[in-house]
Design goal:
alpha/beta; D-Maltodextrin-Binding Protein, domain 2; 5-stranded mixed β-sheet
């Protein structure tokens, strides 16, 4: 009989512990929901891990402008360049509190490409709670205006014969430009390791290096190269998209020049530190979805030569994981991965 009562007592004890746990989980969820309902109550910081003037920075400022009005709270942009985007990403994802008031405005360079290019990365995609993708940009190949090549095909043939003379600018050895160059070189059978990367602080710096004759090539988005191309200091040889860019309708696509299979595209989006409450992430995702329908925001994107490309948190996360896998294969094939 004592054994029977002992079993009953143990079962009741386990049930009480379970119910207490459920109650605590419910209370925690309720608290988080209340925080999300009142969020934001103070200034929000958007961390851009690159220098001012590039595509990520300009997109971040368009987002900050929209949400400052939408939420009635100050949304500020802080530039923390360095390390190919990792210094700013480290600050936003590891050093700042995971309370929803610090976001990383990231792109391929600081996420998928960084992880793919490093066998022991400081940060991985798992350190991000991907919130929404905001915009995409078309890759373009730029050289100095008075360079000897008048077409992408001419330039490519020269590179095939003189890979060691090809210098190109990038924010890091595993950044957007590096993967753009690597994908192109791999497709034409040129050893990536025979070419030479020159470090830059961002797209505007890369373009300036080309204009000044310090490097041969810059691979960035059409928007980031627009100003120097329009002023006649650099020229675009090709754009990497299925159609010609409306910004530069006279510039052919890489496929028109005879090169297929080049698919790399630039994107920028938002992510929180991994421990950020889900309800706050959802609130941001809903706000970004609404923002991407706003005429004024779309006009701002058009001004900075970017295309709206919203993905919700789930789809954004899936796309990032797939991209990381594909870029890891490319990095291993070409020798980017260290």
């Amino acid at each position: 009989m004592k054994k029977f009562y002992s079993v009953i007592f143990s079962a009741l004890l386990i049930l009480m512990v379970f119910l207490t746990g459920c109650s605590n989980d419910t209370k925690t969820a309720s608290v988080n929901e209340k925080k999300a309902d009142s969020y934001p109550t103070r200034q929000i910081e958007l961390v851009v891990p690159f220098a001012a003037g590039g595509g990520v920075d300009l997109a971040a400022r368009a987002v900050a402008q929209y949400l400052s009005k939408e939420w009635g709270q100050s949304v500020v942009v802080t530039n923390k360049p360095g390390g190919g985007g990792i210094i700013g990403a480290q600050y936003a994802l590891k050093e700042a509190k995971a309370d929803g008031y610090t976001l990383l405005v990231n792109n391929n360079s600081a996420t998928t490409m960084y992880e793919a290019g490093n066998s022991n990365p400081t940060l991985t995609t798992k350190d991000n709670k991907f919130t929404s993708r905001v915009a995409e940009g078309t890759l373009a190949y730029a050289v100095k205006t008075d360079a000897q090549w008048n077409s992408f095909k001419e330039f490519t043939e020269w590179v095939k014969k003189n890979p060691e003379k090809l210098t190109w600018a990038s924010v890091g050895p595993a950044g957007f430009s590096a993967f753009g160059v690597a994908e192109w070189l791999d497709s034409i059978g040129v050893d990536y390791k025979k070419t030479n990367m020159v470090s830059s602080e961002g797209a505007s710096d890369s373009a300036a290096k080309v204009a000044g004759g310090h490097v041969v090539l810059a691979v960035h988005t059409v928007g980031e190269l627009y100003s120097l191309a329009e002023s006649g200091k650099i020229k675009l040889l090709a754009v990497q998209s299925s159609e010609r860019s409306p910004i530069f309708p006279d510039v052919p696509t890489v496929e028109e020049e005879g090169y297929k299979g080049l698919t790399l595209k630039w994107w920028t989006g938002l992510s929180f530190a991994a421990g950020t409450p889900d309800d706050i992430v959802k609130k941001w995702d809903s706000a970004i979805e609404k923002m991407e329908e706003d005429e004024q925001f779309l006009n701002e994107l058009e001004k900075i030569k970017l295309e709206p490309s919203y993905l919700n948190s789930k789809d954004f996360t899936k796309a990032v994981n797939e991209e990381t896998e594909n870029y890891t294969k490319l990095a291993e094939t070409t020798g980017i991965r260290k």
